[in-house]
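Re-run with default settings, no changes from the original entry. Doing this only to confirm the output is reproducible before filing.
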Amino acid sequence: MRMQTVGAVNALTARWARALEPGGNTVFTAAGLWPLLALLADGAAGRARGELEETLGVPAAQAAEAARELLAGFGAVGGLSAALGLWMRAGLPLEERWAAGLPAGTQGRLTGDPATDRAMLDRWAAERTGGLIETMPVADPGRALLVLASALALQVTWRHPFTEHPEQPATGPWAGRRLRRLSRYSARLDRVGVVAGGLTLYQVGGDAGTDVYLVLGTEQAAPGEILARGVAAATRAVRAVPGAQLPEGAAGPGVRVTTVESARPEPVLALSTVAFSVAAEHDLLRQAPLFGLAEAARASTGHFPGVSSHPLAVGEARQSAVAAFHARGFEAAAVTAIAMQPGGAPPPQRHRVRRIDIRFDRPFGFLSVHRASGLVLAAGWVADPEPPGGTAP
């Protein structure tokens, strides 16, 4: 994956995060949306093309190639499956150059019958996400002339599983609730970092080259700002002070550094967090300017002559996403759709060692990041953790 494209996708992730409405749990993926916008930009004209180009962060003339490279690059991400789908009504002419740029096996047909098309689209979403997303996020397939969709499904297994136990906090925003507390111990102090201004990140190492970052900000900071700053820190755009360099005492949100006696000479990094399962539905046209779709959604004229000679406008743009974090691993999935409509043993001696305790005991964010490229695959916010009795991935 080209670094320019990765940077553009991550920039959209950060902007989307900052635009999140305050509230409860959420999860989203700009990585699933960006290729769709890029393919549309390649076939757009006029102001719609300009808006999409600005949102993408790459020239519209290069957008389709960047989308194809990104989609191909998903295949190199261990544990990630990705798919692109295009469905169109019979008789809708597609421009040959635009259609030729789509992956093989992408195209299907819409019948115009809402029930038939709904069943077909839902089946595709479920099959491409392993059943994590059961419904294609298109509200009215009967009106659609063309549907362009992507599906991403990620499964990560922790290299070192957590220990799980039920807990009922006595203080804090989750006081009195029964939670699934997850804990682990490590000597890798570099797993934690603190960014100036009050932001803590903990990197949970996954198999196959994808990590999940837990992100905790100050109690006064907005969730969207915490997530956006987390993107910058997790992708090394801003510096986080590593655990070995943190001062003693309260060194960052949820972080306390002490010196303790230990039977082993290694430092101790103790993490305490909670299991969670989150799901969200996003109507992207509610924030159309954020995604470069304000002009494209105007049905008074067509905006995509490079896609079809038939006038087309964006009638729907939606995303369904889920994520789960448990003792053994992490999984996330998203389907994004844009519909076009017409208009060991102790040694004998004792040691003084550094101990860092990190507690995620109030709402926090999370990011799944491909280690080699730095691409943020999914992001979200946990306001309501999972109670005992949930199902691990």
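The chain has a mean pLDDT of 93. The longest helix spans residues 3-18.
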